[in-house]
Design a protein that fits this description.
By secondary structure, the chain is an all-alpha fold. It folds into two domains: about 5-125, no CATH class; about 130-158. The chain has seven helices and no strands. The protein has helices spanning about 5-15, 20-40, 50-65, 70-75, 85-95, 115-120, 130-155. The longest helix has 25 residues, at about 130-155. The radius of gyration is 26 Å and the shape is elongated.
Length: about 160
């Protein structure tokens, strides 16, 4: 059986499809390993096939772990801006014999994964304060200032 040279295969893919940076392919490969290890930690001890949705979740977690608040920026730099891009990368790797697939696997498995802003930006945004509390506090502060201003006027102070 011929040993696959990952780097050479990725170069072949990029020559045929230049949409994604070579680092995106390396990331997906490492993200698959991360996903398999995560599934094992959760009690799944079998060596089994990973579904598209499981891989997407693993890639999301791996992205956040590796790149934190820069995850979306890094992925976008590599040409990855939606879950369907991960599908294209995976199936490019399948077509070159880097990854395997079952008869049931398809690009459709990656549709409806997650919104990149929700997945990679929102976790790092500050919590949103209740606008009701803020507006009532502001109204209270304005009322206090008016009362103080009225007291000054009635006592002749400026």
């Amino acid at each position: 059986m011929e040993k696959i040279n990952f780097g050479e295969r990725i170069e072949e893919i990029i020559k045929a499809d230049s949409r994604y940076d070579r680092d995106a392919y390396q990331f997906v490969r490492e993200g698959l390993d991360y996903t398999l290890k995560s599934l094992k930690k959760q009690g799944d001890k079998s060596h089994r096939h990973v579904s598209g949705q499981e891989l997407l979740e693993g890639l999301r977690q791996f992205s956040l772990q590796q790149y934190g608040p820069m995850a979306k920026t890094v992925l976008n730099y590599w040409g990855v801006s939606q879950c369907e891009d991960f599908a294209e990368i995976v199936f490019n790797m399948v077509d070159r014999g880097i990854l395997g697939k079952t008869e049931q696997d398809s690009r459709e498995d990656f549709k409806g994964g997650y919104d990149f802003d929700e997945a990679f930006v929102k976790p790092y945004l500050p919590p949103v304060r209740s606008s009701h509390r803020r507006s009532s506090a502001s109204a209270s502060q304005r009322s206090d200032r008016r009362a103080t201003d009225q007291e000054k006027l009635s006592s002749g102070q400026n």
